[in-house]
Design a protein that fits this description.
10 helices; 19% strand; alpha+beta; 258 residues
Amino acid sequence: MTGNKKYINVEKISAETHAQFDAFAAGVMTDTMRELNAPNQELACGMDDQCMRKLQHWANAGLLNVQPGQPWSALDVAMATVLTVLKKRGLSMNALRQIRDGLNLPMYEELSVLGFAVLLCRQEYHNDRTLHNAPYLVIDGENRITLCRAADVPLVLTGPEIPTYLHIVLNMGRVLYDCSFIHKTKLMHETEFSELPAQIAQRLLDSATKRLSFDREHNRIKTVSNGGANPQYGERIIKYAAGRVVSDTVTTVEPLNE
């Protein structure tokens, strides 16, 4: 196994793990690796507009290699799934970028760290569906990643260079197979895909929002939106022309809670 020390820490995993991983990689067929990167429209066909709005923020921030609505590959789905789980745990966008870069590094020639993990999880899932031998992803306080077996986790966690930092440990099999990527995304609030204050992110990511402005002197936020069918509060202006509605907006002004 190879790796960039800035992103990957493989110094503490056992020789047995190296041997098992090497043996598995030697049996991976070239067409199998290609399949991981092949576009597959069915993989993300369950994404609704809400999911696309959430993921669009990550695509715009450069976290994802594919735009919502375009065909996704198995690796695209796997990457978005891992990042979703980590963002739910409170990691910053910068931390996610570092972890993504580590997962994209080659582990065996043309096979990335993430690609290797996906293929190994597939084998374990198809063998007995228990995922007992699925690889673990360990992330240290510097956002370096280590892909290892369960037996290696205690070795990886001991003697951290900076003792005050905690590690994040993910069972990759559980992450990828416990529930679908679409389900994970739907469970998350739109603000979790952004580092903006929640109140601002909610309105910024809301497709109904037309304009957004801030009055810092009076600490207020002003939102102009289409209002939907039944706005709860605000000033609603409906304009008619030739007997039909040509404009329908709702303006709300509220305290800005940062």
